[in-house]
Amino acid sequence: MSAFLPLPVLASAAAHCQPVSLGDWRNLLAVIWDFLSLSLFSLGGGNTLLSEYHQMAVDQYCWLNSRQFADLYAIAEAAPGPSSMLVGLLGMGAAIREGPLWGLVSGVGAEVAILLPSTVVMVVASISWNRWRDSAWRVAFERGLGPITLGILFAVGLKILRISDHDTPAYAVSAVVCVLMLRSRIPPLWFMAVAALLGGLGLVNR
């Protein structure tokens, strides 16, 4: 439901939201359990769960605001490694106010929780999948998952656009980058560098 509320309403709600402390083991285990549950739904990679991450971190547990969430997402995407690296950063950001040790424990716990179940399922599925390599059901299943995953990723892109771009120049930059990504072979790092430069010069504000 929160995904359909305007940003001012969410910001107002966040202002009255008290961050859940992870200094209590029960809260930490509850958060890890949430990530364990989400792991089994990460079709197409960690980015497909971005809306759920945002709902947990910003609306449910109140660890971050939308701007901080967008900043962590940008760091996770810019750094080498899987997109699920964002979860470790969220876990660390959630508990860092309790001290560096809690931040480390929470970050590692969240990352393991999001990776372990889906990895186990994929290993088991990969071992068994070859048995049905000539099956029409397997072909139909794989073809059906393609559009579903693309749809989820498109929704994720809109979510990031919504929580990150708060002025007209920022929306314009996002639109231009989207067109160039689809129509050219320019490496994404160039777009990130130009966007960082525009932000550093104050030409684009979030």
Describe the structure in your own words.
The chain is built from 9 helices and no strands. It is flat and about 55 Å long. The N terminus is likely disordered. It has a domain of 134 residues. With 206 residues, it is mainly α.
In short:
The protein is built from 9 helices and no strands. The chain has 206 residues and is mainly α.
Q: Which sheet architecture does the biggest sheet show?
A: none
Helix content: over 70%
The shape, in one word, is flat
Number of DSSP helices?
9
Secondary-structure element pattern, one letter each: HHHHHHHHH
State Rg: 19 Å
Structural class designation: mainly alpha
The end-to-end span amounts to 24 Å
Unreliable runs: 1-14
Mean pLDDT across the residues is 76
Number of separate strands: 0
Measured by DSSP, the beta-strand proportion falls in: under 5%
Secondary-structure map:
Layout: H1 7-15, H2 25-39, H3 50-60, H4 66-78, H5 85-95, H6 100-129, H7 136-164, H8 168-183, H9 188-200
